[in-house]
Design brief:
The protein contains 12 helices and 11 strands. The protein has 334 residues and is α/β, with parallel strands linked by helices. A 6-stranded mixed beta sheet has the order 2-1-3-10-4-11, with helices on both faces. A 5-stranded mixed beta sheet has the order 7-6-8-5-9. The chain is globular, with a radius of gyration of 20 Å. Keywords: Receptor, Signal.
Length: 334
């Protein structure tokens, strides 16, 4: 997968670059499309509720550069990790609803709506949906010398040996943990979950033979797969991806299974409709730019931008879906 590595390095190299000024070729001014005549007149702030350098941060910085070009103003990325994305999300929920403070959110927002007790915000009441950005897979990985080189081998062994297979994740209630729990339910298998405080230690223990497999983010585990340190077995997405050529989806053996990771932009509730429209227009232009598409595809992601209304419907459907998994699996953060 050398082409993936090359694309990723190119993307990372672009993150520190200042977005070019001016409108995209052939695109009318946003103000004339939306009526937001005076927006934006200064730099915007994009809160990323993760640490710098991770997969979400990379997506956020790349998108910020592309949206800056569409809006004609810079977008400053503000990393606010902690609380499983709750800290950064709450900052935006409590911000002035003027369009200048935005949130780069992920599947975690939908999960936290049920998983986290006493959230400091109401997911439906306190945010304005701007738009979906992209969706992509998580990956089930094993050790290259493992007997589990196919998903079928995993399922057969798990059914014959309930509870004996161990899998690691980046933590209780994480998106990859819930992807595995959904797999257990759909495939009818019993697996033993080993939670970690981050993905790196899970990868280390898998390489060291202390785990049978790990559910991991596609971008986070890519370098291990490229190096041959770990082996990709199956994808959690609905469709295969060129970033992992030849790797099947879980759904090909387990009908109805899907656990895609997604990224979206939200603003504080009460953001004026014309500003929401302007931001959505910039988001769609940025996400559909061929250069941006190429960069996110390096990690197996595909653009899925749409309207704010479509984003709200999608987000609420995700909240309902993961609520069911959390309840059925009796999942907690402890």
């Amino acid at each position: 997968m050398s082409h993936t590595s090359t694309s990723r390095r190119r993307m990372l190299g672009l993150l520190g670059a200042t977005a070019a000024s001016g409108a995209l070729p052939g695109i009318p001014a946003l103000a004339s499309e939306t009526g937001a005549q005076d927006f934006p007149t200064r730099a915007l702030r994009l809160v990323v509720p993760f640490t710098p350098g991770g997969g979400t941060d990379v997506v956020g910085r790349s998108l910020a550069a592309a949206m800056s070009e569409a809006l004609g103003q810079s977008i400053v990325v503000d990393n606010r990790p902690g609380g499983g994305t709750v800290i950064g999300s709450n900052i935006v929920a409590k911000a002035k609803p003027d369009g200048y403070t935005l949130l780069l959110t992920t599947t975690a927002l939908a999960i936290n709506d049920t998983l986290v007790k006493d959230l400091p915000y109401d997911t439906d009441r306190d945010f304005s949906d701007i738009g979906l950005i992209c969706v992509g897979p998580n990956v089930l990985v094993t050790h290259p010398k493992s007997r589990f080189k196919t998903l079928d081998a995993v399922i057969r062994y798990a059914k014959a040996n309930p509870g004996k297979l161990t899998y690691g994740s980046s933590g209780n209630g994480s998106a990859v943990h819930l992807a595995a729990e959904l797999f257990k339910m759909k495939a009818g298998v019993d697996l033993t979950h080993i939670p970690y405080k981050g993905a790196a230690q899970a990868y280390t223990d898998l390489v060291g033979g202390r785990l049978d497999f790990v559910f991991a983010t596609a971008g986070g585990v890519a370098k291990y797969v490229e190096e041959g340190t770990l082996q990709a077995v199956a994808l959690t997405s609905r469709e295969r991806t060129p970033a992992y050529p030849g790797i099947p989806t879980i759904a090909e053996l387990v009908p109805g299974y899907s656990a895609e990771v997604w990224y979206a932009i939200l603003a504080p509730a009460g953001t004026p409709p014309d500003i929401v429209a302007a931001l959505n227009g910039a988001l769609n232009k940025a996400a559909n730019d061929p250069g941006y598409k190429s960069r996110v595809s390096a990690d197996g992601m595909k653009v899925a931008a749409g309207t704010p209304q479509e984003m709200r419907a999608f987000r609420q459907s995700e909240q309902a879906r993961w609520r069911q998994v959390i309840h059925d699996g009796k999942i907690t953060t402890t």
